[in-house]
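Quick one: Sigma-70 family RNA polymerase sigma factor from Rhodanobacter glycinis, structure tokens please.
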Amino acid sequence: MTARQHQQRFESLLHEHRRIVFKVAGLYSRSAADRDDLVQEIGAQLWRSFGGYDETRAKFSTWMYRVALNVAISQARRERWSEADRFEPLEAHHLETVGGGEVIPEQDERLTALYAFIGQLDPLNRALILLYLEDRSYTEMAEILGISETNLATKISRIKQKLRGQMTGAQTTGA
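--- reply ---
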């Protein structure tokens, strides 16, 4: 494959799966400017890493998620985000393509609470929930995140339990 063919293949695959980059950047950004910077950084890292992509080992989307999430999580850790740091509020447009691409026309209180809950998660658990909401298999999620399926299942269970507790608490307090 010539260098030009290699570049064209990358551009085609990137274009086909570009929503992955935008979803990850949207979930790990504190502002629109941060999001734009993260999109560029993810794109650059994807290109730098593309020579090592092996289609016999993983689907392109799986590999792309892994690279994009690693860049986003690394950036969050580099900047040492604390719980006091605020992300841009998570809105429906950040997740509009998650779970089949349906845009939800009206946000009810439960959906708003879910977005707020996701916004409070640490970077790794944000990644986990993004993949979970996209109905990725446990095997694929574990491969993308670089953790065992057992660890993944435990984390998902804990997040669900925490979410149930918060949603129950919100209902009893009337929030």
